[in-house]
């Protein structure tokens, strides 16, 4: 059996301090919640680097290549039209659409990969059971430690209390199947 | 020394109250009046569109040679206005211009709504808009394909991309604020609605980190789009041989004009919104000052383009170009429009050299109205005087818009304002998390600007 612990803080500095203390105790499933992006906070997923930029780049490359090839095939092979004797493969006129489709693919990929990596959409999480947790969207800072075994619980509470949070909440943890 | 970007009360909870609170209070009578008037205008627009589609394009003033008429003028005008949003959200983000934070949401919304208006016109101008899908390559049973050596399929790609990326950028930036609205919603229904659209955003560090990467990436992608969209629109003109169109100056000239009109529209939307909602603390004189400086700078780009295109028209030695620039435009039947565009885009904006004028809501509004009118006149002259006075006098024909033309144009203004009124009512109009971040950064750095 395990529990999860949530501690509420007044400001960024306290949150940072608490996060560092808890991480140094060896807890790994730690997440912080804040109304603004805060640097220097632990991110349990940070060991897995984000692939947003790479995915967007690959999508742009793929969409650009396909778009150019399609324009070439249509203009040169499928439906050749002689426009004032100009070459059929008049590549400069293929560039605008190639560029636009690359940007479109990159943007769509960036957004979808970001949502996937951030675990969105997800309309319910264990933290939502805590009364007042929503203030993490306004003016409070929360630290969340997940899956703490009962034998380590007392130690964790001591560590958290040393960082002087406004309060500590225990949430029974349900392991995901 | 510059003024602070956030005045007065900096407490995060009260800041949120002022921005998110109005979403849940009863709508004011003023709002209902706005929705009523713009709603009727939108209805009139729909009727005129339906009439135009049923009866055909003969209801408009378009003729041969002036086949482009009002639809293309209005298309270019609206898509130009849309540029300020992406400029503010993309380019100014990359340049770390912090003053963008409290007006970017309004500007991005304006972009979306302007693109909607712009998209109506080329579709309508087809005459048979139900065939719009012919622009997209698909294996037709007739064996025909789009012609990519024409600028028109480029337009379709550019506008579709621009609209989509603007929407993604706007929506991504909204997620944290929609989550705040969800948590503050007084009723279960509102909670569900805002909760659904916030996608369950909860401000976790991992989400924030990815959000930032994606936001920066989209800004980087949106930046070349700002430049490319109006460059492509200008190619519709520049790759054609009509006098006054066939010029390499067009892409930068169009982009500058677009940003000029876009910033003017931002000023005109931000000022009344700030007044009605009492947002003087987050939209300060310094914001107005910076917007007006942008109008002044882009006004100079446009003025320079006017001078260069006229000079090159004369210097080319081509009689139809010389006639176009030196006779048809300044002294032709629409000479007043030419001079109006010059005065309103190039001359009145010069008052913004004075700091007092940049910070005066009245002067800024008047000049901005002038710029919007002036940019519309510029497009009128560009589209129609060039077509009315083609390369040979045998092609000359007068063009005059009809009441239906004017009605459709006015209808898109109403539709645009209706969308904006709905946005102000139901969406957090200032980016709460970015303003909060700004306050936080300033506190950590111990400075105000």
CATH fold field value of the largest domain in chain A: Alpha-Beta Plaits
Strand content of chain B: under 5%
Q: N-to-C terminal Cα separation of chain A, in Å?
A: 14 Å
Contiguous uncertain segments of 5+ residues of chain B: none
Please identify the top-level CATH class of the largest domain in chain A.
Alpha Beta
Instruction: Name the biggest interface.
Output: A-B, 63 and 60 residues
Quaternary state reads: heterodimer
Mean pLDDT score of chain A: 83
> Which band does the percent of strand residues of chain A land in?
15-25%
CATH architecture of the largest domain in chain A: 2-Layer Sandwich
Helix-strand topology string of chain A: EHEHHEHE
Can you name the CATH architecture of chain B? Up-down Bundle
Order of strands side by side in the largest beta sheet of chain A? Answer: 2-3-1-4
Q: Calculate the terminal CA-CA distance of chain B, rounded to whole Å.
A: 9 Å
Shape of chain B: globular
Measured as a percent range, the helix fraction of chain B is over 70%
Count of spatially separate domains of chain A: 2
Overall radius of gyration of chain A: 26 Å
Order of helices and strands of chain B: HHHHHHHHHHHHHHHH
| CATH homologous superfamily descriptor of chain B | Formate dehydrogenase/DMSO reductase domain
Largest sheet of chain B: none
Summarize the topology.
The complex is a heterodimer of chains A (177) and B (449).
Chain A: E1 2-9, H1 12-24, E2 30-33, H2 52-78, H3 95-117, E3 141-149, H4 150-162, E4 167-172
Antiparallel strand pairs in A: 1-3, 1-4, 2-3
Chain B: H1 12-24, H2 29-55, H3 69-81, H4 83-94, H5 104-125, H6 151-184, H7 188-197, H8 205-238, H9 250-277, H10 285-315, H11 319-331, H12 335-347, H13 355-359, H14 361-388, H15 403-426, H16 432-445
Helix pairs in contact in B: 1-6, 2-15, 3-5, 3-9, 3-14, 4-5, 4-8, 4-9, 5-6, 5-9, 5-15, 6-7, 6-8, 8-9, 9-10, 9-14, 10-11, 10-12, 11-12, 12-14
């Amino acid at each position: 059996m395990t529990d999860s612990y949530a501690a509420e803080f007044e400001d960024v500095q306290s949150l940072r301090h608490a996060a560092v203390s808890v991480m140094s105790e060896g807890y790994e499933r730690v997440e912080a919640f804040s109304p603004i992006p805060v640097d220097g906070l632990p991110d349990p997923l940070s060991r897995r680097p984000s692939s947003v930029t790479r995915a967007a780049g690959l999508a742009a490359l793929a969409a650009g290549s396909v778009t150019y090839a399609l324009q070439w095939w249509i203009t040169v092979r499928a439906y050749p039209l002689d426009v004032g004797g100009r070459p059929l493969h008049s590549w400069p006129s293929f560039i605008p659409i190639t560029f636009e489709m690359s940007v479109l693919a990159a943007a769509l990929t960036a957004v979808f990969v970001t949502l996937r990596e951030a675990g969105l959409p997800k309309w319910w999480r264990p933290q939502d059971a805590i009364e007042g947790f929503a203030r993490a969207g306004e003016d409070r800072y929360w630290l969340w430690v997940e899956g703490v075994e009962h034998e380590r619980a007392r130690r964790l509470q001591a560590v958290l209390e040393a960082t002087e949070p406004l309060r500590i909440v225990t949430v029974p943890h349900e392991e995901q199947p | 020394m510059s003024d602070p970007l956030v005045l007065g009360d900096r407490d995060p909870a009260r800041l949120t109250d002022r921005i998110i609170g109005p979403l849940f209070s009863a709508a004011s009578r003023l709002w209902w009046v706005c929705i009523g008037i713009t709603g009727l205008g939108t209805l009139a627009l729909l009727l005129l569109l339906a009439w135009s589609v049923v009866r055909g394009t003969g209801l408009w003033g378009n003729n041969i040679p002036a086949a482009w008429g009002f639809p293309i003028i209005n298309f270019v005008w609206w898509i130009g206005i849309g540029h300020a949003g992406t400029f503010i959200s993309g380019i100014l983000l990359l340049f770390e211009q912090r003053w963008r934070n409290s007006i970017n949401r309004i500007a991005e919304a304006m972009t979306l709504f302007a693109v909607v208006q712009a998209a109506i016109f080329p579709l309508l101008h087809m005459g048979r808009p139900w065939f719009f899908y012919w622009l997209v390559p698909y294996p037709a049973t007739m064996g025909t394909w789009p012609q990519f050596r024409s600028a028109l399929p480029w337009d379709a790609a550019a506008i579709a991309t621009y609209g989509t990326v603007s929407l993604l950028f706007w929506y991504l930036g909204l997620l944290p604020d929609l989550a705040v609205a969800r948590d503050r919603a007084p009723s279960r229904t509102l909670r569900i609605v805002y909760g659904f659209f916030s996608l369950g955003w909860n401000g976790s560090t991992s989400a924030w980190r990815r959000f930032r990467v994606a936001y920066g990436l989209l800004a980087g992608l949106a930046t070349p789009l700002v430049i490319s969209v109006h460059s492509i629109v200008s190619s519709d003109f520049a790759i054609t041989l009509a006098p006054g169109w066939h010029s390499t100056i067009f892409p930068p000239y169009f982009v500058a004009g677009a940003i000029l009109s876009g910033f003017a529209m931002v000023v005109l939307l931000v000022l009344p919104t700030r007044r009605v909602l009492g947002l003087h603390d987050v939209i300060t004189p310094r914001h107005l000052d910076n917007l007006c400086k942008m109008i002044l700078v882009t006004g100079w780009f446009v003025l320079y383009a006017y001078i260069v295109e006229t000079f090159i028209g004369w210097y080319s030695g081509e009689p139809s170009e010389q006639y176009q620039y030196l006779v048809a435009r300044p002294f032709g039947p629409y000479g007043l429009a030419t001079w109006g565009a010059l005065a309103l885009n190039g001359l009145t904006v010069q008052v913004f050299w004075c700091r007092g004028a940049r910070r005066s809501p009245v002067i800024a509004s008047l000049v901005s109205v002038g710029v919007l009118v002036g940019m519309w006149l510029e497009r009128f002259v560009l589209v129609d005087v060039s077509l009315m006075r083609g390369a040979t006098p045998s092609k000359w024909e007068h063009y005059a818009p009809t009441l239906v033309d004017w009605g459709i144009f006015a209808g898109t203004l109403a539709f645009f304002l209706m969308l904006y009124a709905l946005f102000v009512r139901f969406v957090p109009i200032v980016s709460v998390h970015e303003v909060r971040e700004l306050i936080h950064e300033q506190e950590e750095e111990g400075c105000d600007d």
